[in-house]
Amino acid sequence: MDFLLGLFSRVTGSEEVARLLFLGAIGLSTVLAVVAVSLLILGLQDPVQRRLALIKRGHLGNTAGQEAPGNLQLLLERVGQRFASAESAQTSVTQTLLTHAGYRSSSAVQMYWAVRLMTPLLLVGIALLLLPMIPRVSLAMGLLVVVLAAGIGWLLPALYVAKRKQLRQGRLRAAFPDALDLMVVCVESGLALPTTIERVAEEMSVSQVELAEELALVNAQIRAGISSTAALKQLAVRTGLDDVQGLVSLLAQSIRFGTSVADTLRIYADEFRDRRTQAAEEMGAKIGTKLIFPLIFCLWPSFFLVAIGPAMIGVLKVFG
């Protein structure tokens, strides 16, 4: 309290005006907080509002095997719907990013924007609570800490989603060669393409869960009536990998022109192995360049210290 009063006094220059502003801010904040919490609780607990929210999300009360979302999730979705950008291009970019990160829910975009909005507010509140505990903090430093907390809270969800996307694509890229070899074996043994995808998904369900889920989803779409070409194109969009995009393009051409799928898969498997070898050779060629900085900053100072250090100590003793 004293810290905040001191800040108001520095800004206004009068202690009485600072007290009035401080009391007014506390009263207004209390009223707004009570009203907001009341409206949220009433809106979430209202059976009609909750039923409408569940119907909009596709959850029916008599549907078996579906778990209805909780109040917190519905709250975050509502906040995200208010805050999400109305532009279709921005929504499409965010949806693509979340899909690549593994979030395929219909409400993923709303949840993402809600978390990006609530996290800065939470960190700003924590910063305001911790600032009075730090002695001798100026007004400029306090404002800088609050702004920094808000910026970190705004960027943190985006960084987390980007990192999750990178890790997921790395796991999919590592699992793709094994899946490609299994597809070649299955197709050459006489299985059709949908059956091949189903069998590969079953075989990789333990070792590579994410790629198995993607292939199982492709098989489910084909069974639902979507063409194989369209289902494979959606697989390339969901993963965002160039390797999968190349395979999908070759399979689409093979299905369109009636050529052998086994030959197409075998040729692509050979090309993919060549690309992997070239990528490994490129990474190996870059090692020498990357080792320059560790040598300069870690090894050479120790070497000069051991080699020249005794001589320098002797020179200093002689001329000292």
Automatic annotation (TrEMBL):
Is-annotated flag, keyword Mitochondrion?
no
Superkingdom field: Bacteria
Q: Does the keyword Ribonucleoprotein apply?
A: no
Domain called Type II secretion system protein GspF: residue spans: 180-307
Q: Where in the cell is it found?
A: Cell membrane
Ranges that cross the membrane: 20-42, 113-134, 140-162, 291-316
What is the protein name stated in its UniProt record? Answer: Type II secretion system F family protein
Q: How does it sit in the membrane?
A: Multi-pass membrane protein
The record, for PANTHER family, names: INTEGRAL MEMBRANE PROTEIN-RELATED (PTHR35007), PILUS ASSEMBLE PROTEIN (PTHR35007:SF2)
Keywords from the named record: Cell membrane, Membrane, Transmembrane, Transmembrane helix
